[in-house]
Amino acid sequence: MAGYKPVAIQAYPVLGEKITQDTLYWNNYKTPVQIKEFGAVSKVDFSLQPPYNYAVTASSRIHIYGRYSQEPIKTFSRFKDTAYCATFRQDGKLLVAGSEDGGIQLFDISGRAPLRQFEGHTKAVHTVDFTADKYHVVSGADDYTVKLWDIPNSKEILTFKEHSDYVRCGCASKLNPDLFVTGSYDHTVKMFDARTNQSVISVEHGQPVESVLLFPSGGLLVSAGGRYIKVWDMLKGGQLLVSLKNHHKTVTCLCLSSSGQRLLSGSLDRKVKVYSTSSYKVVHSFDYAASILSLALAHEDETIVVGMTNGILSVKHRKSEAKKDSLPRRRRPAYRTFIKGKNYMKQQDDILINRPSKKHLELYDRDLKNFRISKALDRVLEPSCAIKTPEITVSIIKELNRRGVLANALAGRDEKEISRVLNFLIRNLSQPRFAPVLINAAEIIIDIYLPVIGQSPVVDKKFLLLQGLVEKEIDYQRELLETLGMMDMLFATMTSKESPSLLQHNASDGFLENKKIES
Amino acid sequence: MVEEESLRVVRCGGSELNFRRAVFSADSKYVFCVSGDFIKVYSTATEECVHILQGHRNLVTGIQLNPKNHLQLYSCSFDGMIKLWDYTDGILIKTFIVGCKLHALFTLDCAEDSVFVTINKEKPDVFQLVSVKLPKSSSQEVEAKELSFVLDYINQSPKCIAFGNEGEYVAAVRDFYLSVYFFKKKTTSRFTLSSSRNKKHAKNNFTCVACHPKEDCIATGHRDGKIRLWRNFDDEKKYTYTCLHWHHDLVMDLAFSVTGSSLLSGGRESVLVEWREAAEKNKEFLPRLGATIEHISVSPAGDLFCTSHSDNKMIIIHRNLEASAVIQGLVKDRNIFTGLMIDPRTKALVLNGKPGHLQFYSLQSDKQLYNLDIIQQEYISDYGLIQIELTKAAFGCYGNWLATVEQRQEKETELELQMKLWTYNKKTQGFVLNTKVNMPHEDHITALCFCNAEKSENPTLVTTSKDGHFKVWILTDDSDIYKKAVGWTCDFVGSYHKYQATNCCFSEDGSLLAVSFEEIVTIWDSETWELKCTFCQRAGKIRHLCFGRLTCSKYLLGATENGILCCWNLLSCALEWSAKLNVRVMEPDPNSENIAAISQSSMGSDLFVFRPSEPRPLYIQKNISREEVQWGVFVPRDVPESFTSEAYQWLNRSQFYFLTKSQSLLTFSMQSPEEKLTPTSKQLLAEETLPTTPFYFILGKHRQQQQDDKLNEALENELVQLPLTENIPAISELLHTPAHVLPSASFLCSMFVNSLLLSKETKSAEEIPDDVSMEEEKESVDSDEENNFTEEVQDTNNTDLGKDIIHQLSKSEEKELRKFRKVDYSWITAP
């Protein structure tokens, strides 16, 4: 025979943002730590090696921060002019940065003075990166050139002069030591191969390119420029996969989450958006106080660092996994009860009979199953349930009414209990979705407790409050009706074409309100 | 070939199974229940209907096992006959003609050659218990007129009479009286409930009675839910009773277990209560049986109970209060709101079933397929509660979607309305809830229909409501990156001058939607939802609306409350014809242009079948039912019939079923009733084979060697021995020669035994036929694999017979090995 069927809890649509796995994941960060830098933060880069320090480039300084430090643990300030694009090598031991005067400086993390200086660009170097073999540096500059440098003897190996405007972003492949990509203000993104002296693929982005990003596999390229983010399939020779237009100002920075499943983009419109890399839909978005110039994610997405134009660095740390075994643990059955019969092998002719799985019932359902109606009502009127999930309370009241026992459940309550019921009514009576059920309950309460009114000042006060609430609601409805009447008159005088649809809409509203007043 | 007589209305969908207590066979293998004019024999293990005993000409009112032969069954009926049946073969043995209407039947072990029946004399409400002497006679039909009076002024229901303590006394209850008649003393004692004497509206009337099988103890059930246990009732002064009270509503039935150690009771709570040792605190429950318990019966072996429920169901319950089988008929005890529908997948009839459920009922096998729980809430069976009612349902898109509407209205303003949309899940083979719409309309929903056009890619549903709107719901994609999902949303809301929308209907190709607003029919374009045109006849509110089909798709039919049937031409937008007909039911045939309309008059209901293109009906059948017909439906036939007569051609491809106000499901048939009512499916006999002990195995093997035993024993004896006996001339001579010319038995014996021995020549001659028979039997016993094999054999039969035999040997060896595995060695360990 069918078992007990639990009470159906009416589900109401949740207004606002939909709760998904992604919103839960990306909201699970602490409140940001704000660090003031000297100028606009143009680049943030995480070291790939523990302890996952990050380099922040702002104005003419490069600060190295520890993961949880508020103060820089190291500063490189030997730049005559603005520094750009401080980037860690893969092993986290070297750091390279370009500068406004066209020089590129290579630092040892433990040292202070630059280890190497690469001279050759005539204008500001906005992008530098290490190649996959760790011994070369790629740089792009405002003199339209892209250069490849050898670290051991600090010499220029190659120069590519294919761009026709500033080269502002670049990225070296993580797999192939000879491949790297640069984006330029001439609207193109070019992939260069150090073995061929020329670009192998060139794609037209359509806007000045602000940021490029290669996927770890090297197969997909993401470019950002203007309001667009475009994803290119490099294995198909640079075919456009998707074009995303979700920001309403220029997109300035791109970043992949550690799993590679999500793509993040920062923009001058002060938003960071998170995309799924399978469907390229926005799954989450963050708001910041100022236009965003740089963005970086730590190992395992533990930290989000965002640099802004007003020189503020915002650092968000992931909340540590809550450990909830502080509660006193209930005594569990002994170990042998679990292993009993577990090592028995099924024989040929044995018939396996599974024990039917026990259906979990909520406490109020257990009470209702055993016809403890007052107990069930008490349980859902407890503040923890009544405030957090009023729909459960209302559903139980509705169920009791359906069973024809609501009056019995409400009767025979003392001052404290009845004031709890009245509190719930006062809080929720005016909500349209609960009103039909609660008005009925309120009528029953008034019928039951009318003879004893005046005995308890606390309860009397609650009744007066409830009365006031109902009067206020009626006044409010009357006002609404008056407004509606006026609007109807206005519409009646108009003879334009669009009026019928509006009229119809209002009429249905009016019908709703009429019903409310009747009740 | 079917003989084409006149068309008759026949009842289908079985009758109620819960009219009387079910009776178990002595070995608890079968359970019998009365069902209309028949008695049905069900297997308790498989729930299968094994036999239908038919022969009574009126409602069967009582069945009892023959106390002297447990393989026979007595039954009595309103037609005044008591019949004796052999239930294992389903054969009528004897008929005793009593003459007057028999209301109940009782048998007693000690009463020789007589049974007890309840008859009514003179006044309609006064019944007598009489004993009927059943004369011994060899003829099939015997008059049994020897009645002896036992008790007067008793209740009609057999629940109110019980025989106790091996037939020493009989107890009967009526209103506030308990009367006990002692057979030995031939005296009657009468007890009146003390509390009932003064009060006019006392609620403790007797409802049922049961007697302890071993002791002098009578249990009575009362309307206030109490059970009283009476003792010492042989003395009218010193009698005592104790009270058991758990039921809060009337006690419907009581039964003692075979040993008398426990008492079973049941009522409207649909909880079976077992009182152990007749003590108040010692009770066990089996709750949630689904519907009011009407009857309780106990098997003579004591291992099974059976409860009959008001929703036309019997539950076989094991001794330890575990339900083991459910025998469910067509649920009939509630109002049918949804009407009759056909599930396009299973071709099952779908209608309201148990509270909050839709039942899927197979018309072919006369069996309920399953119940779909729509409301999904705990059913509280209190009297006077306003329940949530399942009011509308519709199938769409070839059975892929099901829409249901449920409502509950407590007061004028408090209407709870919910629409649910269910999708068919191929994996689980059932309907799964997809979308739940709370308050889809402001007022009652009057109709809903799916757009079933073949070309429509997007499922569309239309609901009409008394709030003056009709809403169009479409299936939309609701998927995001996390999941793929579809859901239903409202696409369009239409209204016409704030009239109540009453009906809706899609045209066959789905291009037009007709919605009736009281007296006015509006036609909407289903692409743009533009109002195309309106029809108004000012002939009362539209009750039914349907489009013509196939060649008649340019017609729209509407039936109004004032008894006018209108047919509009959609091309000319004008009234084509109208007829004066008070249409109650109008159903289009999905396989043809025909439309069936059932009209209601003071005389009864008449059926008209017509095509929209011409106002002259194809077929008229007057007086199909005396009562009002509520719903009708065309059911497509699996195999088209071929009625040549023009009048019956409308039944060629579809069968018409209709449901009357008293919930009887009727249809039209031309076959004779016997032919019609025998189930076509092969009846499976529940054969419980013996446990395979080594003894059985040795014997079985022996027999197998002799006769290639493959089937079960019973079949084997019939099938294999019969041809043998026919072949042997000695046996045929023995059997066919009249007895008086035969020589003495001692002379014949040796000849007979010799004939049974297999001689050498016959053995060799019979070898090949033996093989063939083995093959055939294999085919019947084993599964498809074997079938393939036999086909192969047929192909290669002449070319390579030797190979086949080798192959077969390996098979039989395999079978032997399998049998070894099944051997039950538990007997060795047993002490």
Automatic annotation (TrEMBL), chain A:
Coiled-coil region(s): none
Main location group: nucleus
U3 small nucleolar RNA-associated protein 15 C-terminal domain segment(s): 343-490
Localisation: Nucleus, Nucleolus
GO biological process: positive regulation of rRNA processing; positive regulation of transcription by RNA polymerase I; ribosomal small subunit biogenesis; rRNA processing
Domain of life assignment: Eukaryota
Gene3D superfamilies documented for this protein: YVTN repeat-like/Quinoprotein amine dehydrogenase
Pfam families found in the cross-reference section: UTP15_C, WD40
GO cellular component assignments: endoplasmic reticulum; fibrillar center; small-subunit processome
WD repeats by residue range: 118-159, 244-285
Keyword set, alphabetical order: Nucleus, Repeat, rRNA processing, WD repeat
Purpose: Ribosome biogenesis factor. Involved in nucleolar processing of pre-18S ribosomal RNA. Required for optimal pre-ribosomal RNA transcription by RNA polymerase I. Part of the small subunit (SSU) processome, first precursor of the small eukaryotic ribosomal subunit. During the assembly of the SSU processome in the nucleolus, many ribosome biogenesis factors, an RNA chaperone and ribosomal proteins associate with the nascent pre-rRNA and work in concert to generate RNA folding, modifications, rearrangements and cleavage as well as targeted degradation of pre-ribosomal RNA by the RNA exosome.
Assembly behavior: Part of the small subunit (SSU) processome, composed of more than 70 proteins and the RNA chaperone small nucleolar RNA (snoRNA) U3. May be a component of the proposed t-UTP subcomplex of the ribosomal small subunit (SSU) processome containing at least UTP4, WDR43, HEATR1, UTP15, WDR75. Interacts directly with UTP4 and WDR43.
Protein name: U3 small nucleolar RNA-associated protein 15 homolog
Protein encoded by which gene: UTP15
Automatic annotation (TrEMBL), chain B:
GO molecular function: RNA binding
Entry-linked Pfam families: Beta-prop_WDR75_1st, Beta-prop_WDR75_2nd
GO cellular component: small-subunit processome
Segments of this protein annotated with the region Disordered: 764-802
Subcellular locations according to the entry: Nucleus, Nucleolus
Gene Ontology biological-process annotations: positive regulation of rRNA processing; positive regulation of transcription by RNA polymerase I; rRNA processing
Bias (Acidic residues) ranges: 767-794
Keyword annotations from UniProtKB, A to Z: Isopeptide bond, Nucleus, Phosphoprotein, Repeat, Ribosome biogenesis, rRNA processing, Transcription, Transcription regulation, Ubl conjugation, WD repeat
Domain WD repeat-containing protein 75 second beta-propeller: 340-663
PROSITE patterns linked to this entry: WD_REPEATS_2, WD_REPEATS_REGION
Keyword Ubl conjugation: yes
Positions annotated as WD repeat: 53-95
Alphabetized InterPro entries for the sequence: Beta-prop_WDR75_2nd, WD40/YVTN_repeat-like_dom_sf, WD40_repeat_dom_sf, WD40_rpt, WDR75
Subunit field text: Component of the proposed t-UTP subcomplex of the ribosomal small subunit (SSU) processome. SSU processome is composed of more than 70 proteins and the RNA chaperone small nucleolar RNA (snoRNA) U3.
Chain's role: Ribosome biogenesis factor. Part of the small subunit (SSU) processome, first precursor of the small eukaryotic ribosomal subunit. During the assembly of the SSU processome in the nucleolus, many ribosome biogenesis factors, an RNA chaperone and ribosomal proteins associate with the nascent pre-rRNA and work in concert to generate RNA folding, modifications, rearrangements and cleavage as well as targeted degradation of pre-ribosomal RNA by the RNA exosome. Involved in nucleolar processing of pre-18S ribosomal RNA. Required for optimal pre-ribosomal RNA transcription by RNA polymerase I.
Protein name per UniProt: WD repeat-containing protein 75
Organism: Delphinapterus leucas
Species lineage: Eukaryota, Metazoa, Chordata, Craniata, Vertebrata
